[in-house]
Backbone:
């Protein structure tokens, strides 16, 4: 099982499902390679913790795994920044909420924490060839907009990601 959690400020556009249009949401993404029954058992505490706007968890063929994140399929201009974290401490989680929560003033469309490890840590070749090897988390944030807004759109991902610098390991992913 793997997961990521994204804080999203979604645009009010028709391609999004109705409850997500123009919404501020926390999006929990789950991928599990195992039996449906075991997956349901593992998900039960998460489902009980808070109401869901949409619950799209279910059996999918590998070819549909991209649906888990609900990423757009059409190209778009965006500006991003990411950093690997050595730990996800309570302090890091509090800082993440301060930087991205509803009262933060954050304008990013998506900021997420992705769980790494597992296959990411397997040794296919030279250990230093994969910057995330041995790191359990990566934070990724992006802003959407036109290229003529590049300076402004790069500043917000930098502010949020650099705000997590105490948990930062040199290099970004």
Residues:
């Amino acid at each position: 099982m793997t997961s990521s959690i994204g804080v999203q400020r979604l645009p009010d556009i028709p391609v999004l499902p109705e409850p997500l249009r123009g919404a501020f949401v926390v999006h929990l993404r789950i991928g599990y390679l195992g039996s449906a029954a075991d997956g349901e058992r593992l998900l039960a505490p998460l489902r009980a913790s808070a109401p869901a706007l949409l619950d799209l968890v279910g059996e999918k063929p590998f070819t549909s795994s991209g649906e888990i994140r609900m990423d757009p399929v059409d190209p778009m201009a965006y500006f991003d920044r990411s950093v690997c974290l050595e730990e996800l401490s309570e302090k890091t989680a509090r800082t993440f909420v301060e930087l991205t929560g509803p009262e933060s003033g954050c304008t990013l469309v998506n900021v997420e924490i992705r769980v790494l490890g597992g296959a990411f840590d397997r040794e296919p070749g030279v250990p230093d060839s994969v910057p995330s090897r041995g790191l359990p988390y990566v934070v990724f944030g992006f802003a959407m907009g036109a290229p003529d807004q590049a300076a402004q759109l790069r500043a917000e991902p930098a502010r949020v990601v650099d705000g997590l610098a105490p948990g930062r390991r040199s290099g970004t992913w």
Summary: The radius of gyration is 17 Å.
